[in-house]
Specification:
Elements (H helix, E strand, L loop, with lengths): L6 E4 L2 E4 L4 H5 L8 E3 L4 E3 L1 H10 L6 E2 L3 H4 L16 E3 L4 E3 L1 H7 L6 E3 H5 L6 H4 L9
Antiparallel strand pairs: 1-2, 3-4, 3-5, 6-7, 6-8
Protein name: B box-type domain-containing protein
Keywords: Metal-binding, Zinc, Zinc-finger
InterPro entries: Znf_B-box
Amino acid sequence: MASKGSSICKGSDLIHDYSCSKCEENDLNTEAQHFCPQCEHYLCGKCVRIHGEYFKKHAVYERGEIQKWAGFSMDRCDKHGKELEVHCDDHQELCCSVCVALNHRLCSSISHLPDLAKGFLKTEEFKQLPNSRSLK
């Protein structure tokens, strides 16, 4: 069953609102309980202890400060720390240059993010989004 109301149990897969970045690199599905803004990594209890040993001066936010987590951009690759520049249409993934070189060399459709963003403000989907002034 989902813990603390922050995860969803769907079939046999547990889907977390935030998964531990370091565990995901090892194909583990662990719920994040912490966020490091300097590293831009979500961390579980085990990984935050290891992180704290290596990065003693990093301020890490806990679940009680989750509103601070969303304020950070996720424009960097979790695996390589590089800027996300392209979208692999074959795998429906955002990728950095290292990801493309290592994992997407054989993919048939890679799109540059600025090219995908061109004209977005004029699309019907964007026009249907609520205006930020009307949300206040």
